[in-house]
Amino acid sequence: MTDAGEERVAGGGLLHRRALLVAGALSTGGLVTAVRAASQAQSPASMRDPGAPLSGYGARVHTSEAIQRIVPDLPFPGTGSSRTPLQLLEGTITPNDLHFERHHNGIPEIDPAMHELLVHGLVRQPLLFRYEDLLRYPRESRILFLECSGNSGTLAAAQPVQASAGQLNGLISAAEWTGVRLSTLLDEAGIAPSARWVQAEGADAAGMTRSIPLSLCLEDAMIALFQNGEPLRPAQGFPMRLLLPGIEGNASIKWLRRLKLIAAPAFSREETSKYSDLRPDGKAELFSLRMGVKSIILSPSFGLDLQGAGYREISGLAWSGRGRVRKVEVSADGGASWAEAALGDPVLPKALTRFRMPWRWEGGPAVLMSRATDETGAVQPLRAAWRAHYGAGQGYHSNAVQSWAIDSQGKVAHVYV
Amino acid sequence: MTDAGEERVAGGGLLHRRALLVAGALSTGGLVTAVRAASQAQSPASMRDPGAPLSGYGARVHTSEAIQRIVPDLPFPGTGSSRTPLQLLEGTITPNDLHFERHHNGIPEIDPAMHELLVHGLVRQPLLFRYEDLLRYPRESRILFLECSGNSGTLAAAQPVQASAGQLNGLISAAEWTGVRLSTLLDEAGIAPSARWVQAEGADAAGMTRSIPLSLCLEDAMIALFQNGEPLRPAQGFPMRLLLPGIEGNASIKWLRRLKLIAAPAFSREETSKYSDLRPDGKAELFSLRMGVKSIILSPSFGLDLQGAGYREISGLAWSGRGRVRKVEVSADGGASWAEAALGDPVLPKALTRFRMPWRWEGGPAVLMSRATDETGAVQPLRAAWRAHYGAGQGYHSNAVQSWAIDSQGKVAHVYV
């Protein structure tokens, strides 16, 4: 087949999005095999004997068992993080088994019948909510991303770390969360006029605590009880967690036991010694809670080298803590030219958006980059601009454009452009 | 607390949807506990010792292990169906482990390196697609429901079957599917002008085969390769399955090995001896493939009896094979009065939509019903109208309104109204 008539939209072989959308517009250039004589003359073994039985709870295909979260060696096995292997997954929903985790002192086992959520401080009437109380409240369901503020932190390293897209960026996942609007509970307790912040505390052995502006708690915060349909898992905060859409993950306190309304932030350990952003002038930005606009290319990416020239799809994920992704631009020539990718439908606010760009790799060197813009007009910064904003060693809120170089053998490397 | 000022929208205690949306509009009527003296003076055990370690692949909370698909006793353990326990889940996405299954001769184990998809018949050039070929094609991701045409078939029984919502209706699930548009592959093979139907065949030991109108295959059909992010599971057709949005599940052939373009339907076993709809005049409707507009109340439902009067949420799922759900009406008085439920955002075409209705149960007898309308204006029929359309014994395409009676003790029963 020929690729004559393909519409090029930028350098390095990027094709018009129409190639994804219109039958006939795509010339794959011989990916498939014209039928051989006597093809499929014999039925496969799978058709000759009855297959395996039905079951109450499903299992993955054997070859998928290699799809695991990335867990580093840790001095304390419950303190640290596991990362979602983004480059091995598709779409925008993360299976619960593969959602990233970040724990500060392990995963507690909590009996829901013994668990209570206390709402107190600057309220008209302190209230205690049991799990079974919350199950009777009105619920909402939303598909949302959750991202650790330390995600992609190694982009601050002097040399680009050679690691998979999930190893570099896998502290993000997405799920359909169901729970009770936090505003409903706060309203029931009665917010005192002097309340401006909410201190949230978890029932884990870290006593994980964060101060959150009251405005965020009233905007769209949720007490999550279910994730992708099933009750929360222990690692995601069972029986209940705070969920702050678009906000750095550590503030969405798991195993939530206490919400104290206060007039000023508490300046707890997790908002002073950690989770603050050092500037070049030596001062730190505090409570920089909202996650920036960001995108990453997952296919191709490090470890998924190209097998031969020809047609393929560049695809990845984009998101913004401010709302919807408006566009994602892709470059195949290291930023010299850009073209707009197709966005998966629907584009949801504070959720992951899959972008796709048809591409004909000619077999020569290429540098792939993606750059997202959100509905507020915020644009994902280049690495130099991102670094210039912060002091040395800053690894939080790393949302710079990332680059994959492809050599003429199809090998993919992480590079700084 | 008082419920004075609550806005009633229909009989039996149905409240205005505003109660879900506006802080302050909801009076829960004392679901929670005002704080006792010395509450939370002692931190819980979970805060005293480090918790469990991180892991590569997650696990459910112990109490969730009771959430299993419903599998009947079967003479052949791989021939039959397992049902999603809908009443125990939330939101609209079904975890892959709990997606319903319907197999006609067990679950085959297929080596993807040996699997081929043949496209032949009335085409310009027969083609063979290997799994690795398809992985290079442009992909799309869509959240879609899949429903067995036999779902809710027991509604034809003379007496209402007393069973859970999942047992009665659990042959439906939803997932984010990712794959290749079927139109892309057919276009590459070249559709002959005489082609009108496509015969799809699976590589299972049933050789499951269906004839599908070519128009459906060109509209929005997909060769699915991923489900909720991960590669298809064996039980869902690994390495590839046909996926026909909005169409009865058995036509979405799993373990797809062959697509033959033909001029007229093949009248195979699965479209003559089964999956046809008997009318009162003794004739059968064939190829009634599209699933109708439907809704079911999951909470409360059989087995989930009410514990005491007061505020709670009525919630359930609605869907239509024709597109989006436009509205869901709920009745608490056996159909004497109806009020419109709140629909979860976004309402996606051919996907599940969660509906919610605030309700104050006064403690007396009630009969709960839900009735969906889709964007084409089609309305879910009452059971009498649905039965009148078909002959005796018809259990396919059962989309009639269902009813749960609640007695003064809060016990829920399945009833015909």
What is this structure's SSE topology?
The structure is a homodimer of 417-residue chains.
Chain A (H helix, E strand, L loop, with lengths): L7 E3 L3 E2 L2 H4 L11 E2 L45 E3 L18 E3 L12 E6 L5 E4 H4 L5 E8 L17 H5 L2 E10 H8 L7 E6 L6 E5 H6 L2 E6 L2 E2 L9 E3 L12 E7 L14 E2 L5 E2 L8 E6 L10 E10 L5 E7 L7 E2 L1 E2 L9 E9 L4 E9 L8 H7 L13 E4 L5 E4 L2
Parallel strand pairs in A: 6-15
Antiparallel strand pairs in A: 1-2, 4-5, 6-7, 8-9, 9-12, 10-11, 10-15, 12-13, 12-14, 16-17, 18-19, 19-23, 20-21, 20-24, 22-23, 24-25, 25-26
Question: What does it look like?
Answer:
Two copies of one chain form a homodimer. By secondary structure, the first copy, chain A, is mostly beta strands. Chain A contains six helices and 26 strands. Chain A has a five-stranded mixed beta sheet. Chain A is globular and about 75 Å long. Chains A and B meet through strand 3, strand 4, strand 6, strand 7 and strand 8 of A and strand 3, strand 4, strand 6, strand 7 and strand 8 of B.
Q: Write down the overall geometry of chain A.
A: globular
Q: Structural class, from helix and strand content of chain A?
A: mainly beta
Amount of beta strand of chain A? 25-35%
Regarding quaternary structure, how should these chains be classified? homodimer
Identify the biggest protein-protein contact and residues per side: A-B, 129 and 129 residues
Q: Helix fraction of chain A?
A: under 10%
The average pLDDT value of chain A, as a whole number, equals: 93
Count of alpha/pi helices of chain A = 6
Strand order of the largest sheet of chain A: 7-6-15-10-11
For the sheet with most strands of chain A, the description reads:
5 strands, mixed
**Distance N to C terminus of chain A:** 35 Å
The number of E-state strands of chain A comes to 26
Radius of gyration computed on alpha carbons of chain A: 24 Å
* Low-confidence runs of at least 5 consecutive residues of chain A: none
